[in-house]
Amino acid sequence: MSISIQTYLHKQTKAAPLAVFRVLFGLLLVVSMIRFWYYGWIEKLYLLPNFHFHYYGFEWVQVPGNWTYALFFICGLSALFFAIGFKYRISILVFFLSFTYIELMDKTTYLNHYYFVSLMAFILMWLPAHRHFSVDSFLNKSIRVEFIPKWNIDALRLMISIVYISAGLAKLNGDWMYKALPLGIWLRDKIDMPIIGQFMDERWLHYLFSWGGAVYDLFIVFLLLWSRTRVIAFIVVLLFHFLTKAMFPIGMFPYLMIVASLLFFSNSFHTRLLKGISKVFRIPYEAFCNGMKLTASTFFSRAALLILPLFFLTQLLVPLRSHLYAGNLFWTEQGYRFSWRVMLMEKTGYANFKVVDRVSGKQFYVQNEDFLTAFQQKQMSTQPDFIVEYAHYLGDHFKSQGHQNVQIFVESYASLNGRLSQPFIDPTVDLLTVKNSFKAKSFILPLRND
Length: 450
What we know:
single chain, alpha+beta, 450 residues
């Protein structure tokens, strides 16, 4: 076993796929930062709210006021620098830290593909993506190589595989497979789409898309790995992601996954792609094809072989943590985030908070719009940890206003995947006695699955 592992670790492949991914991935992120700024989302999501929801354990991450613009600028600039391979080790580290900090500032903005970007950036920190077709290797011939250990490419492929297969397994639930929900709800709103819009209200199409999505996620990686089906599989990737982009507001996610899928293509494909880019920008690509191999045991390669196995083990285990909790996952959302459950539920809710004086019994209701934006209210009303954190914020606020013996209760209702609205949080529980943690949330009322 140890011999076969050593053989694998010393197996070489061309560095071109890693260089192509670095360039395209980085440029997409530059566009993403510009897009976020252009649409005014920095102000809307981070500067206008008076209160921000925090990830458990990361309450110390705060929005730095108007310096948030500088943070986004640094993030975008570092993405450009690592895309072109300029001061790569520093730029990828700065990008990972700045981008992850941005995502940790408010969990209201959580999206799976933001999490995916942070993870891919973390992996790239340990890989020699700057040693081929980069500014660094152009200026410093001594680091220039044409071949790198194959596990460098496989590490990125493994992360992509975990995302796809985890997403596919998550779709094997009753609502998705047997009721075509929530897709059936969403597709009915797309009847104005050209050509296929006339079928969007048909149940057979809802089931086709639901089952097709599960099959796609479960098997697309294997089809990309096999050279005989790779081209067809990539065409399916393009059709799948462009169709989902046309139907749903999912930002840069389709483009990120299309670029990631290119990692499964052959070395010759990436070499031709780099040669084409070289001709456009008049770069002597032949200078990078020096036949040199990266065989030296560098600090980063040794660190990667220690850190990345633990990293991937974590990525395999984290999506499984939801099995530690009782109840319907989509209802309780305990273990829902960071598990690649992509677009699997349509959940709406209502939460009315009541402030009570424990001694006198006097009470009044909170106007949520006085404290939260419309987007924050929507997110808060269906997620138990949001409700608890907001209740504590309200408790601190009203105590600071001179209120005594404060208790906070909530009257809340939620609807999951088209079910009738039903009570969500136990209205008899003083939420100030509850703290967010990894423990099961007993104050969530059970889902009546009718």
